[in-house]
Amino acid sequence: MNENILAYLVVYLIASIPFGMVLAKIFCGVNLREHGSGSIGATNVLRVIKEKEPKKAKKLAILTVIFDSLKGFVPIIIARFIGFDENVLWMMGVLAVVGHCFSIFLWFDGGKGVATGYGVFAAFLPIEFIISLFVWFFAGKILKISSLASLIGVLSFVILSFIIHPNLTSINTHAPIFFISFIIFYKHIPNIKRLILKQEARVI
């Protein structure tokens, strides 16, 4: 098998692991797919576990964010160390988000892709990542709406990537960033509809 295809397959399978769902099941015996929004992400972990076992809620939500971010970050760093071409690395990044959002272990359903997307962004454009992370954090603190803060953070990363790196010389295109952002926004369509109707839940 071609080594590039093998790398794509491995990163997709790793990213397909629904860590939020696994953690909630192991430590609280809860199936996230049957509670709250049904999402496997940290926000649903926090909401659902807070009702069952409040003391574990924040810890499991934080662990979910960390693991979901790492599955976008670590494979790219390892592949870069091995010597894979930058174009291959960006494709791996896209497939990491695809794997998380359309997991083969969940019949091609999955999470919203924000944490995994940010893990990918951190591997390529750390300056934009850090600034947009602060934007995401402060938007969350002010607005108290997780989905809106996440989308603002992702949008800020896209804008910053053009300001700080108008020409991504290694690949000569911002297309992977657009594609990752598109997937994240696509997975947030239900949230966007609720935001428009002013029905989106706040994080308290």
Task: Give a written overview of the molecule.
The chain is mostly helical and 204 residues long. The protein is built from 10 helices and no strands. α3 (42-52) packs antiparallel against α4 (54-82). It is globular and about 45 Å long. It is found in: Cell membrane. It is an enzyme of class 2 (transferase). GO terms for molecular function: acyl-phosphate glycerol-3-phosphate acyltransferase activity. Keywords: Acyltransferase, Cell membrane, Lipid biosynthesis, Lipid metabolism, Membrane, Phospholipid biosynthesis, Phospholipid metabolism, Transferase, Transmembrane, Transmembrane helix.
Summarize this entry quickly:
By secondary structure, the chain is mainly alpha-helical. Helices cover 73% and strands 0% of the residues.
Write the layout of secondary structure elements.
Blueprint: H1 3-15, H2 19-28, H3 42-52, H4 54-82, H5 86-101, H6 114-124, H7 126-143, H8 146-164, H9 175-187, H10 189-196
Function: Catalyzes the transfer of an acyl group from acyl-phosphate (acyl-PO(4)) to glycerol-3-phosphate (G3P) to form lysophosphatidic acid (LPA). This enzyme utilizes acyl-phosphate as fatty acyl donor, but not acyl-CoA or acyl-ACP.
Membrane topology: Multi-pass membrane protein
GO molecular function: acyl-phosphate glycerol-3-phosphate acyltransferase activity
